[in-house]
Amino acid sequence: MIESAPGPTSHRFLSQRLRLHYVDWGNSDLEPLLMIHGGRDHCRNWDWIAHSMREKWHIIAPDLRGHGDSDWSPDGHYDMASYVYDLAQLIHQKGLAPVTILAHSLGGNIALRYAGLYPDTVKSIVAIEGLGWPPKVLAERAKKTFDERLRDWIEEKRSFAGRLPRRYQSIEEALGRMQGENKHLSPEQAYHLTVHGTVQNEDGTYSWKFDNYVRNWPAYDMPTDELQALWGKIKCPTLLVYGEESWASSPEDDGRIKFFSNAKVEGFADAGHWVHHDQLQLFLETLNKFWD
């Protein structure tokens, strides 16, 4: 039970005038390990792994802008460049380089870009489904012209502007939503993620902590070939993880592994997008083997 063990301490750092939150698990004399969560998630989703590894590493887990206890972007815009800048600022301000990184989904996408931009500052990286949309999805998206994609983005953003954060009458009601999102979660996991992922409103109801606008993916990003070239600049050992029940495809099967110079792929059966929750013990064994 992780709830009975001492937790981390909360801290803030500044990036683009935003006060961004991170937790520190102590042991600052050890090598730094950054754990970066995915979209609509929060830094405390790493607690099980952090508890297991806190005696070996100096673990720091940030809340991305618009997530958890970090500030929301005042204009509701969340682009990849800003996320990467935030990560670069955290590593720079706290003197973490060279750093080891464990990241999930959106966090993995951010971390892999950073590792390509600053390859000498990353010792190794584990990215759980951090390559973004599979090639098939990107191919479908590419069928739309830029003006069509931009109009879609405007309409979607407008719809989020009129959407109020959902309010749950109790933690138990929010818990039901969390359990519905991932069938593999144990009751303990689901409750922990819900408690740390919600905030109580003034009227006593509960809402998720993330900004609704983080759902609105920017209309344009780095061209695919430039992103692939950035992956090729990563020098450190890289482990690309995916769940065999996930919407994400295997980087080996879809060919994306070829853009990395020092990477291997690890698939996990009976796991979806949240491999580190769905197959926790096996994932911990894989991490230790990779880092050893």
Report on the architecture of this protein:
The protein has 292 residues and is α/β, with parallel strands linked by helices. The chain has a domain at 9-141 and 221-291: 3-Layer(aba) Sandwich (Rossmann fold), CATH 3.40.50.1820. It has ten helices and ten strands. The protein has helices at residues 47-53, 80-93, 106-117, 135-142, 146-161, 171-181, 187-197, 224-231, 275-278, 280-291; strands spanning 9-15, 18-24, 32-36, 58-62, 99-104, 122-128, 198-200, 206-208, 238-243, 263-268. The strands form two sheets. The chain has an eight-stranded mixed β-sheet, with helices on both faces. Strands 7-8 form a two-stranded antiparallel ribbon. Helix 3 (106-117) links the parallel strand 5 and strand 6 (122-128). Helix 6 (171-181) crosses helix 7. The two termini are 26 Å apart. The mean pLDDT is 96.
Characteristics:
292 residues, 8-stranded mixed beta sheet, single chain, 35% helix, alpha/beta, two-stranded antiparallel sheet, Rossmann fold, 10 helices, 19% strand
